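Notebook p. 47: complex prediction with zinc ion.
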Amino acid sequence: MAVRRSMTALLAGALLLAPASAAVAAPTDPEALDAVAASPRGPADTDLPFGVGSDQRGRSADAPGRQPNQPAPSAKLPGKPRNDVIADAPVELTDASIAYNLIPYHDIPPALRDLQRSGRISVEIIGQSVLGRDLHLVVATAPMSDAGWKTWQQLSDLRFSDPQAALAKLRAGGYDNWRTPLFINNNIHGNEWEGTDASLQVLQELAFSTEPAIVDMLERHVIAFVVTNNPDGRVAATRANANGFDMNRDYITASQPEVRAVRAQLVRYSPLTMLDIHGYVNCTLIEPTTGPHGDNYEYDLYIKHALRNALAMEQAVLATGETRATCANPDGSRRNDIPFRDRTQGWDDWPPIFTPMYSMYHGAIGHTIEVPLNPRGNLTEAERHERTRINTAVAVASIKGNLGYATENRAQLLANHLEWFRRGVAGEPTRPIDDPLALSLARGDNAKTHLQGFPRAYVIPAGAEQRSATAAARVVQFMLDNDLEVHRAWRPFTLGGTHYAAGTYVVDMHQAKRGLASALLGVGRDVTNDFNAMYDISAWSHGHLWGATVQEMSESVILDAKALRPVTEARATGAVAPGKQANYGLVVDSVAGIQAVNRLLNDGVTVSRTADGTFVVPGDVAVVRPIAEAYGVEFVKLTPPQVRTATPVAKTRLGVAANGGEIFALRQMGFDPISVTQTAFNNGTLSFADFDALFVSTAAFNPLSLNTTQSAAFERWLADGGTVVGRGASGKQFNDRAGLLDVTIAAGRSDANGIVGVVNNPASPITGKALSTSFVDAPQYFTRVGAGVRVDQRLADEGFFLAGHWGGQEAAAGHAVVVSGEAKGAKVTLFGTEPLFRAHPEGLYPQVAAALW
Ligand SMILES: [Zn+2]
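Predicted complex, structure tokens below:
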């Protein structure tokens, strides 16, 4: 019942405060009063721990209304936490948290204002959810002057700019008073609530306790809490956010606003430890994980502290005495579930899609915590509340266990963190685990790591060597947003015997966060034979799936430092061919290109397409110039014979039976998808006449379930030249039910996924200019292609599987994965690949757009 009591206390406090005056209300805590008294200029003084009020109130990592080609504001923010005015949220009596006896979203702002009174707490609005709810970051630390924060920021930055110097300074005592950043993220899965409640309880203590241990802790750390990373999901009791995304699969892609907001804070603090609190796994699960371990982490450095921190958190959970939160050992003692120690496979840290794994690239000892008891489902109210009470107590214990460990081992943690970055700057290979405790406790192969050598650099060429200038700028800006160093050549230069144009980007891999650069730009590795079972996907790559030409330079090349300048933002400038043109051509090679074409179509501009897939736009500079500037695309000169082959393209009215990730990706491209079902057609809500194209990848639309009238209407729609794009097994099933293309399909393992090498049919308007890599998940491939069906893309022969996990992959080699043809008068394309998967492989989007237009 501790939860309700403390919440009641918080609410009672908050009732005394009107929202507008909340931020300047006099603190009641004796310590904070001292801080105010010590200041000659009163409560609004900047010598207070955090400036009251804010000149950047509600600044989002993600300003709404931003044009597609404008880079996001730099993720790097100043170190000094702000104290924003925290506005109330509308009371929602349907908030799912209430039934669980947990804090509803609308009670969070008053609770945060109450914490702000303490003088030890700042609260910032770091962005908004998809539905517009504020995302709050709470930072707890002892009061510090502006000058103190300036020094703090300098020492913080030195970690990455010169980790060797930072290590020397640490040894000389120069970091003794530097407060180490620690980070706790909560409720990223909206229906795993308790981390939020636990963090508010811990914050109550951090804010108001006079215990010497707490006061000391606040002198040593800057402790950042994301109250809820998924407020929309918290209110609605959904795992996903309002776009249907599992955000704990999105950290390496950052397609969602809630993820970008928290990512900016991880970049800003680069914390030493990071907890991401989830539910629900029996015994309470505390990472580190089983193998395979991600190749790009400094795993030997990570595991030393991850394991000991996990053991400390386990002790804290055991000390709660909640036996329902722990499991029995054979000898009768109790334990939690620490996968590195207790499991042999299936709970890995391989993909940095997960929040704690992503944070490891910023030097954090990252942990997922799974509180033990699922409160959902058919339970009595008493049992439901008992479960959330225990879960909250467990989350409190794990946070405190972590804070205790970080306080006791502060210097070693910091030395370890700096060594991590030092190796990056020095360009040293990763090392095997050498910690005796880790080696002795590892179950199965969990102590095995793959030793990673890194390339000397990645090159993202400019000019003719680059297949997509807009995709190149997108990748570079993404790297900058992830705190990576990128240089640009101001003049032509030579590297590894190749000449590169001015404007070429170079990612020097001798940098602090080189592991993240490698994770983004490298292809990854085939881990099929490392472990049998993987927890989630096993491959991703911005370098290979986002549509830009990215080249790897071996360790032996020598960089021409004089040609290179650091860049702080990347933006494709766009261009329009000079002179008077009858028509302009636009090659769609990226998301920006698709957006530009959809914008032209939405604006009612006459657009056609040549046989080779180039878009033809009338020669009106007033029309194309603003598009070139907004999207960074290039309008080129066309020859009359090219123009003569062009056929008209109309705005695509798109119906979809697809998953949330695909619908999001289609919207990103500027389509306006409308979900379709047989029921909606049968009851007259939808009419086939309102659509030009259907994208089908789920079983939500079954043409065999249409009534007689709608079935006839569907056949007429097909005969009138409708467009059908099917993806995966359900797309193929739709094709068969509608009696369209004559093809036979085979399926890879349902848990298989990865990056594949493909061979494109140069005559295909869908894949003629496509990337030579693609992405598969639960792969489908065509083993027989009937007469009149074109193979647009097939898997390469031997060695097609470049990265990921796919048992039995050999059987798929050489088979078709994208096919198209005409059937019943309709244009039909089937994808066995996953071109829109979780909005990640942006470089594959043009294939889908080409099939839909
Ligand atoms: Zn979860």
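Notes: Residues 1-68, 70-75 have pLDDT under 50 and may be disordered. The pocket of zinc ion is lined by residues 189, 192, 248, 278 (CB under 6 Å).
Next step: compare against the earlier run before touching the bench.
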